[in-house]
Amino acid sequence: MAVYKFKTPISEEEIRKLNVNDVLYVSGTMVTARDQAHRRALEHFKQGKTLPINLEGLAVFHCGPIVKKKEDRWTIVAAGPTTSTRMDIFEDEFIKNFKVRVIIGKGGMGKRTTDAMAKYGAVYGAFTGGAAILAAKAIKSVRSVEWLDLGMPEAMWVLEVQEFGPLTVAIDSHGNNVFEDVKTKVEENKQKVYQKLGLSP
Amino acid sequence: MLEIANIAENVAFNLLKQAVIYLPEDVKQALQKAYAEETSETGKTQLKAILDNIEFAEKYKAPMCQDTGTIIFYVKAGTQAKDLDKMEDALIRATRRATVEVPIRPNAVNPFTQKNSGDNTGRLIPWINWEIVPGEDIEMTVLPKGGGSENVCVMGMLVPGQGIKGVKKFVVDAVLKAGAKPCPPNILGIGIGGGSDIAMKIAKKALLRPLDVPNPDPEIARLEKEILGAVNMTGIGPMGLGGKTTVLGVNIDYAYRHPASYPAAVAFNCWAARRATAKISADGTVEYLTHKV
């Protein structure tokens, strides 16, 4: 378990140094994107429209933050991760088209995303679910907000962050997936659990 | 003297604020214990981040989690209490105020148009569970219920012939299926019997029982412990990244069932198991029961 501190834009070469269970801190530019922002970004790409921000080498955060506006300035109040599996249907295309390097969320992602991360060079950083103030503290400023018509949680917030983490590298760019490993172990433990409760499988 | 309805609005606002910022002491202690006992390195990292986050939330007086949930109230209304007819409006006003002033995230979406109301209110939301009790006091509890843990709640009509064994399997399978999704370590509310709706209602309400208060029925208390021990053998661990703490506590409630039916429900709560309660007396004095003010 090594600790890495990366600054955006992150190169493919850098990202390939990471292995599962490493701890990563990201500084630089990060954007939030949930279901609706993923969908719209991919629609824009399909229609040949450019995105409001170039995402190459950046970190994408599965997060619907609480944001407060004070005299025309946005500040992030709380910003923990949301469940990433909902974005599994978009993420492979997202990584391929926009060359993002770090996907941040909670709960892990599936095979499609794991394969895309191996192919195009990206990692999944698990941020502790609900640790919204820990996250907010690392967010230094809101650069802009795009697509606010989608609502506060679904809009794309463009954030400047400093040592955002700790992120546990749960999917690396070599095809490894901690959540899949845990799933295998849990499946092995299942019989023991049944046995303890006097159940037959 | 202020009207009881106005007092109720203020109390509901304070409860919402307390709940989303300060975790109840019993939950905090359970998390600290889990951190001390966790053997997985990654699991320990997760629990440390949770404990740090709780501390920062208190320090900055900000919601501990950005998902401040669907707002659910439980109101024990004394039959002699004043302003009961104005209570629903008071709770709605408090919710709107909390959305702006705490702030809490707007989390009420129309399921047809997908439009977010922007103020945490909408048809039937905030949801209010009413209970009529003797007397003139009003006891009010708020449960801001997070979406991640809500998405794995399950209700099943089990086979009566399997009895409590069927329930055990149902609960274990629910935990295994939920995996990392409900932000473990979780609290499980288990509702048995009644009917399909009743089982889930009492399961969810069971989430309000503090972790250090055992079930008054020693047989059921034993069952709670047994299930807790078993689900913590799964290895899912904090945030599903592996480890020994998957569940912090198991709270069971039950109702008598129809001879042909065996309903069972599992309500999950995330580690951010938020709740706050207060009592309003007839003379307008307020006592906060879960949080010191």
Spatial strand sequence of the major β-sheet of chain A? 2-3-6-7-9
Secondary-structure element sequence of chain A?
Answer: EHEHEEEHEHEHEEH
What fraction strand of chain A?
A: 25-35%
Which residues of chain B form runs of ≥5 with pLDDT under 50? none
Could you write a compact summary of the structure shown?
The complex is a heterodimer of chains A (201) and B (293). Chain A is of the alpha/beta class.
Summary keywords:
heterodimer, A: 201 residues, alpha/beta, fumarase, five-stranded mixed barrel, two-stranded antiparallel ribbon, B: 293 residues, alpha+beta, 2 domains, five-stranded mixed beta sheet, four-stranded mixed beta sheet, 9 strands, 20% strand
Verbal overview:
The complex is a heterodimer of chains A (201) and B (293). Chain A is α/β, with parallel strands linked by helices. Chain A has a single domain (3-176), classed as Fe-S hydro-lyase, tartrate dehydratase beta-type, catalytic domain (fumarase, Alpha-Beta Barrel). In chain A, 31% of the residues lie in helices and 30% in strands. Chain A has helices at residues 12-15, 35-46, 88-98, 111-120, 132-138, 178-196, and strands spanning 3-7, 23-32, 59-61, 66-70, 73-78, 102-105, 123-126, 139-146, 156-171. In chain A, β1, α1 and β2 form a beta-alpha-beta unit. In chain A, α2 (35-46) crosses α3 (88-98). The longest helix of chain A is centred in the C-terminal third of the chain and has 19 residues, at 178-196. Chain A starts with a strand and ends in a 5-residue tail after the last helix. The model of chain A has no long low-confidence stretch (mean pLDDT 95). With 293 residues, chain B is α+β, with helices and mostly antiparallel strands. Chain B has 2 domains: 4-23 and 64-146 and 274-288; 148-269, no CATH class. Chain B is 39% helix and 20% strand. Chain B has 8 helices and 9 strands. In chain B, the strands form 2 sheets. Chain B has a 5-stranded mixed β-sheet with strand order 2-1-3-8-9. In chain B, strands 4-7-5-6 form a 4-stranded mixed β-sheet. In chain B, a hairpin with a 5-residue loop joins β8 and β9 (286-288). The model of chain B has no long low-confidence stretch (mean pLDDT 96). Chains A and B meet through α5, β9 and α6 of A and α3, α6 and α8 of B.
